[in-house]
Write a structure and sequence with these properties.
Layout lengths: L5 H21 L5 H39 L2 H8 L5 E5 L4 E4 L1 H7 L11 H4 L4 H6 L4 E5 L2 E10 L2 E8 L1 H13 L1 E8 L2 H6 L5 H20 L3 E6 L2 E7 H9 L4 H6 L11 E6 L5 H17 L4 E6 L3 E6 L10 H16 L4 E4 L6 H17 L4 E4 L8 H10 L6 E2 L1 H7 L5 E5 L10 H6 L3 E5 L13 E4 L6 H12 L6 H15 L8 H12 L4 H6 L5 H12 L2 E3 L2 E6 L6 H12 L7 E8 L2 E8 L5 H6 L4 E2 L3 E6 L4 H21 L1
Parallel strand pairs: 9-10, 12-13, 12-15, 13-14, 15-16, 16-17, 19-20
Antiparallel strand pairs: 1-2, 1-5, 3-4, 4-5, 6-8, 6-9, 7-8, 10-11, 18-19, 20-21, 21-23, 22-23
């Protein structure tokens, strides 16, 4: 229905008020009380109509006078013939004037005077348009406009620029922009290792057929194999967006390809989206592929402008895949860098644990005793969970100053020093960020799945997401540097790190995990002594028991939370998370606790759910079966609610696959 204007229908209001007055007078003959009530209501209506009419007419008059102050008669005539749509409105937004272009373009065939300008600006508000220096984008009657607003005393002037064509061209440009992608058949060797006959060729051909069909038929691109198990393909941004909406269903299609033993094939894909050139897109695709492989494979990583990533998939456990030749080369390269340094510093992550300190002790032993270099381990004594191991090492080497504080390390470090970061690769989680900034020569040794905030430009980035622990990786390295340097205490330190991250050889264990443990056992590691390092206090045991008893089951996930900030809650929380996995039907466990001003989450699973992906929404990370996160702002209850929302989103994504 067409909107009526107030000055058009105000006479009707007067007539209606007069009719009410006449009815009141007519009722006088029959019932005095009813007549008085009707006359009173009629008088009130007449007063209301008169006041509203007068006020509105004054308002319109003020707006018109304001417009006349701003624009001269000649300017009004010029604007009337102006090619761009222009409208003048009162302070409240009621339109008092518009030129011919406005009438033709935005409201053809109807009178717009008296309408509120807001109906033409939706979903933008009057304030947004008036305060935007570069205009606001709107859509009206299927056309795209950029609206500019200006204040003028009591009036407002609005200019509408019809840029439908240019926005369509811009959209088409972005949608048709070339996107370079790279794919890797990442578990090909494992699938064909035990194949018989032509099964290996069949599996490879089936995977390639799935990729080719997806790229050519669904993505509108072309694909080429540039080496065994590696592919490059081109598509455009519109098809990448469509694939995102389907959460890259090609990952599921590839997993449907299986070898004779029933093992599923997996691929990893890197996408370079939004680059300014094809060369830059190719570089981004390589980085994205490295990121996808570093996170365990079987996923798509999309790199976008601003060094941001989006991840899809990654819900299957990785298969152990490491090359001893690469380990030997890295060991030789590390030795060369150590010999070229005046001093070596080793540090792990914040709130260091047995794996972080144990791997550091193993490196200290082989570099200090084996290569004769000056080596120090950087650790914050008041914020470590490996106090028992540190005390044991210091008792074993009373004449050595092995552990130093971050402050001492920063003061003694030089540009010729070498920094080895172990058990983390994120700049946000290192023990001493200031030391990382001061020393330009850095080596990274880590087993956690790749994070976006990883250390860049490292001399050596030894990253193995398939390894059980950093201690396992260091154990392999020391055998190629000088294995005789590892004594009983050093071996027990490394074995404690392996035991911690594998939950006593239950999770994330591979053949090479046991090979490394066997080497440490030959070097004198005592399993009973290692077990004693895991002993906790009665207080932490009670805290763990209270956390477990207070846990709730939510969609097959155990969630425990606590506001306590006393004792060693980190140890209790980690142990409680492990304990909750023993409950029948529990796929994953989450323990939320306060630590100073932060709220922490400790997550565990038995491999049925990827807790790393869930905690990445909180800025955390870790492994498929174990992860953690620290939230600086928020209460325990708020974090718990946010965790439930993240779980719902993750489970909804699982249900779609």
């Amino acid at each position: 229905m067409r909107k009526r204007k107030l000055w058009v229908i105000s006479p009707l209001f007067y007539l209606m008020a007069a009719a009410m007055l006449a009815m009141g007078l007519f009722s006088w003959r029959y019932d005095l009380i009813i007549s008085m009530l009707e006359l009173t209501a009629a008088c009130l209506c007449i007063i209301g109509v008169v006041v509203s009419d007068v006020v509105y007419r004054r308002h319109i008059g003020a707006a018109m006078r304001s417009a006349k102050k701003v624009l001269t008669a000649a300017e009004m005539d010029a604007l009337a013939a102006f090619a761009l749509p222009v409208a003048v409105a009162a302070a409240t937004g009621d339109i008092v004037w518009g030129n011919d272009a406005f009438a033709r373009g935005l409201c053809p065939g109807r009178d717009f005077l008296g309408e509120n300008i807001q109906s033409f600006l939706y979903p933008r508000t009057l304030r947004q348009v008036l305060e935007a220096d570069s205009g606001c984008a709107i859509t009206h009657r299927g056309r795209e406009y950029t609206v500019y607003g200006a204040r003028a005393d009591e009036g407002r002037i609005f200019y509408f620029v019809d840029d439908t064509y240019f926005k369509a061209i811009t959209k088409e440009y972005h949608e048709k922009r070339v996107v370079v992608c790279m794919a890797v058949f990442d578990n090909r060797e494992e699938l064909v290792r035990d194949s018989v006959g032509g099964d290996d060729s069949r599996v490879t051909a089936d995977v390639e057929a799935v990729l080719r069909r997806w790229v050519v038929e669904e993505m509108g691109g072309f694909i080429r194999r540039y080496s065994t198990g590696r592919y490059l393909f081109l598509t455009d941004d519109a098809h990448i967006e469509a694939a995102k909406q389907k959460r890259f269903k090609v990952l599921d299609d590839v997993r449907n390809v299986k070898n004779a033993g029933g093992m599923s094939a997996t691929v990893s894909i890197g996408v370079g989206r939004g680059a300014d050139s094809a060369a830059e897109s190719e570089s981004w695709a390589r980085q994205a592929l490295d990121m996808a492989l570093g996170r365990g494979g079987d996923q798509v990583a999309v790199r976008q402008p601003g060094d941001t990533y989006e991840f899809f998939g990654g819900n299957s456990k990785g298969v152990e895949k490491r090359d001893k030749v690469r380990t030997r080369v890295i060991a030789a390269t590390l030795s060369d860098h150590v010999k070229a340094s005046d001093r070596v510093f080793i540090m792990g992550h914040k709130n260091s644990d047995l794996d972080s300190v144990g791997s550091a002790v193993g490196l200290w032993a082989v570099l200090h005793k084996g290569l004769g270099r000056s080596v120090s381990i950087v650790v914050s004594r008041g914020q470590t969970l490996a106090g028992s191991l540190i005390d044991k090492v210091e008792r074993a080497y009373p004449n050595e100053r092995i552990f130093i504080s971050p402050v001492d390390a920063v003061q003694t470090a030089t540009e010729r020093s070498l920094l080895i970061v172990t058990d983390t690769h994120s700049v946000n989680f290192v023990e001493a960020p200031e030391l990382l900034e001061k020393i330009p020569r850095v080596v990274v040794i880590d087993h956690h799945r790749m994070m976006v905030s990883h250390i860049k430009n490292a001399l050596i980035f030894y990253h193995e997401p398939y390894a059980s622990s950093a201690s396992e990786m260091v154990t392999e390295l020391v055998q190629y540097i000088k294995s005789s340097a590892i004594e009983q205490t050093d071996a027990e330190a490394l074995l404690s790190g392996i035991s911690l991250d594998t939950k006593n050889f239950v999770l994330r264990t591979g053949v090479r995990t046991f090979e490394a443990s066997a080497f440490l056992r030959r070097r004198g590691a005592d399993t009973v002594t290692v077990k004693q390092m895991f002993s906790g206090s009665m207080e932490s045991y009670k805290q763990k028991a209270q956390l477990v008893s207070g846990a709730e089951i939510y969609k097959n996930c155990a969630i425990a939370s606590s506001n306590w900030d006393q004792g060693d809650m980190r140890i209790a929380a980690a142990q409680a998370a492990d304990e909750l996995l023993s409950i029948q039907g529990v796929r994953a466990s989450f323990v939320i606790f306060r630590n100073g001003t932060e709220v922490n989450i400790s997550a565990r699973s038995l491999g049925d759910m990827n807790v790393q992906v869930i905690l990445e929404t909180f800025g955390g990370g870790g492994h498929f079966t174990g992860a953690g996160a620290q939230i600086k702002n928020g209460s325990v209850s708020q974090v718990r609610q946010a965790l439930i929302q993240a779980l719902d989103a993750h489970l909804a994504t699982e249900a779609k696959r």
